[in-house]
């Protein structure tokens, strides 16, 4: 990590190791990941903070449910079939089902992230399989094959599971399936589960593909509470509704932190999206190999949709020395930018953080339709190294020595904070500019 400025040092304790490999508080959902921080080494159980006791109101009506209505614990999963961390979480869910049997029911909600182009078609395909009673079988096949989800693959799975393929294809076009996914996505964002996977165990949020012991600890606690309710006369089938009836519907607004100094931050020639004259500009200093940076990607995409026309997002590079492929990835993204494909390349890099070597870069260049020879020549000539070094030096100067760090009209946000933290600052800046908020 580059040496941060003095004021950043003062807040490092609040950030909880945003570059050091710890997860943030449970409400800070962006794993993003797209991927959640399961990509990095987890602290030991003794070091890991307890899961928050806050209960969220997570309805299950209209979702696919595996297990009995009388189960005392309900696990609601928001997941993405192309996300490698979701596949890891799926394996954990399978272990929980084996361990707890009819005491646990699992509810699947879909949250296909924009950075995973095949996640949405896969989700629709699974729901179409569900129209023939084969959702869970199809669901398992998708998680077993996160890298094989082309249209041909999806159809092959339908055949292998014995579906009526003609009917399955017809159901793929049903608007009601796409609408179910949109409702799930909206609920995930509302609940603060902006990255994947996100789990709610009797309404308590577990962010990311955490170790099995984290889940069993929460399930055991919730079983004890549920059994007490049953002893008190609550029918088993009513336990979940009773537990969540007073739950919160969204994360509590984060407390306003001590205001950090506003910095003079210019977009310059950085890749950006959104109107140049937008009343609010968000500049991110990020690292393609940093798992916490990937957690922020879904948050920024959600903000761009919410504040369309009012928000400009720019990207600057801060490849950290402890990430050996980060500078190459940064250079490759700029070579893609030179050909007008920065954001497409950006999404691929964050979706594939474990594959950032030179061969992978060239594969991604082909995938997004670049002139690969021109791309390779730019990397060989180290054409963008000086530009990346300038970004890094500027980041250190303004206090973005660690990643991710954001500046909203110059106001710093350090780390992959919850989306409501960004909203609060954006809304304040819009108000100052006399512009209507969301």
Describe this structure in words.
The two termini are 36 Å apart. The longest helix is centred in the middle third of the chain and has 20 residues, at 212-231. By secondary structure, the chain is an alpha+beta fold. The model is unreliable at 1-47 (pLDDT under 50). The chain is built from 16 helices and ten strands.
Q: How many individual helices?
A: 16
- Strands of the widest sheet, in order across it, are 1-3-2-4-5
**H/E element sequence:** HEEHEHHHHHEEHHEEHEHHHHHEEH
Number of strands: 10
What's the main sheet like? 5 strands, mixed
* Apparent shape: globular
Q: Which class do the helix and strand fractions yield?
A: alpha+beta
Distance between the termini: 36 Å
Strand proportion, as a percent range, falls in 5-15%
User: Which whole number gives the mean pLDDT?
Assistant: 88
Low-confidence stretches: 1-47
- CA-based gyration radius: 22 Å
Give the proportion of residues in helices: 40-55%
Chart the SSEs and their pairings:
Elements: H1 6-15, E1 64-66, E2 73-79, H2 84-100, E3 104-110, H3 119-130, H4 135-144, H5 151-160, H6 165-172, H7 175-191, E4 198-201, E5 204-207, H8 212-231, H9 239-244, E6 272-273, E7 280-286, H10 291-306, E8 311-317, H11 326-338, H12 342-351, H13 358-367, H14 372-380, H15 385-398, E9 405-408, E10 411-414, H16 419-432
Parallel strand pairs: 2-3, 7-8
Antiparallel strand pairs: 1-3, 2-4, 4-5, 6-8, 7-9, 9-10
Helix pairs in contact: 3-4, 3-5, 3-6, 11-12, 11-14
Keywords:
45% helix, 438 residues, 16 helices, disordered N terminus, alpha+beta, 5-stranded mixed beta sheet
